[in-house]
Automatic annotation (TrEMBL):
Assigned protein family: Belongs to the metallo-dependent hydrolases superfamily. HutI family.
Physiological role: Catalyzes the hydrolytic cleavage of the carbon-nitrogen bond in imidazolone-5-propanoate to yield N-formimidoyl-L-glutamate. It is the third step in the universal histidine degradation pathway.
Organism from which the protein derives: Alteromonas gracilis
Pathway: Amino-acid degradation; L-histidine degradation into L-glutamate; N-formimidoyl-L-glutamate from L-histidine: step 3/3
Signal sequence interval, chain numbering: none
Record key words, sorted: Cytoplasm, Histidine metabolism, Hydrolase, Iron, Metal-binding, Zinc
Subcellular location: Cytoplasm
Residues that hold N-formimidoyl-L-glutamate according to the record: 163, 338, 340
Protein name: Imidazolonepropionase
């Protein structure tokens, strides 16, 4: 809404520079000086900072001069902190049992990710440990991991299942993921990733496992509202395009949007299939062919780049960033936080890696972890600073937003607001 005289706001924040991420033609969507009024967890109004602002102060229960929140600022009113939308980590697998430090050592000695997977390690190793983990253990470890993200200003996290594969453990993972909302100031979006690996009990019957996903697991998960989306690992060491298509069509039948791990290790044409099904996102995409990119543009699918996995697996094939940019395919960035290919508990490092490894500009990287990450989750109520959106906000002691992409471990937000509450 626009500012209304007489309306009572919960909070008013002023003396900030706003990187709104709106598409207003300016870098980072910067706005001219505005105060931000918050009511009922949302951005109620953006109010121009002019002589009349003083009168608006009476309309807010709490008025915050953001310069007072900067440590060692010594009352300097000329150095304004920057306000950004809360970060959205739109691709993680942060609920799991155990860890894969041993495999990391094996890889350093020359074993490849694919070798390890084919020898029954990799995702399957984590499946064993996750099946054995009880709910409190899964929850406590997930809280520790998610907390690291929140400390950097992440206010929404997508969490995938996929380390249980059987219905019981998948449901447990999805419940644990959602319950993080009770322990941390964060919104959780859950994704059912049953088609992550073939469980040992179906080793001789891969299509039987797809039947189980489509006829038992997915209908149950959909009917219990346990997932916001469905994902598939479409890959030579994952599932074929025809198996993937069966899962997509079942997801569609149950009204769940689609996301997909595609073209991470080979060009399996999973992205073409995902586009045909109107997927919210295609993720990884190092091996995506330039000629398939127009299809993503047509289907409005977001390209989610995961530089953490590229880095940890010492990959050399980069995603086709120039061609994605040329076709205006929105690019999101995420941590892919998982125990095998990307044990990365830092969205700011993912942002830095997106620039250094994939040549994104700092602006693209920051938009990728805010507005485009929101689109990758089909969320239209966050990711930009605009009246009506959730008041998920971060405040930074920086001179330019590019600093957040440039420096590794140099910054933490000086304040985080989750739905208007200072957390
Ligand atoms: O996004 N590619 C498949 N899934 C994860 C890796 C999971 C694992 O290795 O445990 C990924 O990279
Ligand atoms: Fe992943």
């Amino acid at each position: 809404m626009d500012h209304v005289m007489g309306y009572q706001y919960d909070t008013l924040i002023y003396n900030v520079r706003i990187a709104s991420m709106q598409d207003n033609g300016l870098p980072y969507g910067e706005l001219p000086p505005h105060a931000i009024a918050i009511a009922a967890g949302r951005i109620a109004a953006l109010i121009p900072c002019d002589d009349a602002l003083g009168e608006v102060f009476q309309q807010a229960n709490t008025v915050i001069d953001a310069t007072t929140l900067i440590p060692q600022n010594e009352g300097d009113k000329t150095k304004l902190p920057w306000l950004l939308p809360g970060f959205i980590d739109c691709h993680t697998h942060l609920v799991y049992g155990g860890n894969r430090a041993e495999e990391f050592e094996m890889r350093l000695q020359g074993a490849s990710y694919v070798d390890i997977a084919q020898r029954g390690g990799g995702i399957k190793g984590t499946v064993e440990k996750t099946r054995r983990a009880d709910e409190p253990t899964l929850l406590n470890t997930a809280i520790k991991r998610a907390k690291r993200l929140c400390e950097e200003g992440v206010t929404t996290i997508e969490v995938k299942s996929g380390y249980g594969l059987d219905l019981d453990t998948e449901v447990r993972m999805l419940r644990v993921a959602k319950s993080l909302e009770q322990h941390l100031p964060v919104s959780i979006q859950t994704t059912y990733l049953g088609a992550h690996a073939l469980p040992n009990e179906y080793a001789e019957d891969p299509d039987g496992y797809i039947n189980f996903i489509c006829e038992e697991a997915l209908p149950h998960i959909a009917s219990q509202n346990l997932a916001n989306a469905v994902d598939v690992f479409c890959e030579t060491i994952g599932f074929s395009t025809s198996q993937t298509e069966r899962v997509f069509s079942s997801a569609q039948k149950h009204g769940l949007p689609i996301k997909a791990h595609v073209e991470q290790l080979s060009d399996s044409k999973g992205a073409v299939l995902a586009a045909k099904y109107g997927a919210l996102s295609v993720d990884h995409i190092e091996y995506l062919a330039d000629s398939d990119i127009p299809l993503l543009a047509q289907s409005g699918t977001v390209a989610v780049l995961l530089p953490g996995a590229f880095y940890y697996l010492s990959e050399v094939q980069k995603p086709p960033v120039d061609a994605l940019r040329a076709h205006n395919v929105p690019m999101a960035l995420a941590t892919d936080f998982n125990p095998g290919s990307s044990p990365l508990a830092s969205i700011l490092t993912a942002i830095n890696m997106g620039c250094v490894l994939f040549q994104l500009t700092p602006e693209e990287a920051l938009r990728g972890a805010t507005m485009h990450a929101a689109s990758a989750l089909g969320l239209h109520d966050r990711g930009v600073i605009e009246a009506g959106k959730l008041a998920d906000l971060t405040l930074w002691d920086i001179e330019t937003p590019a600093e957040l992409a440039y420096c590794i471990n140099g910054h933490r937000p000086v304040a985080v607001y989750k739905e208007g509450k200072h957390v």
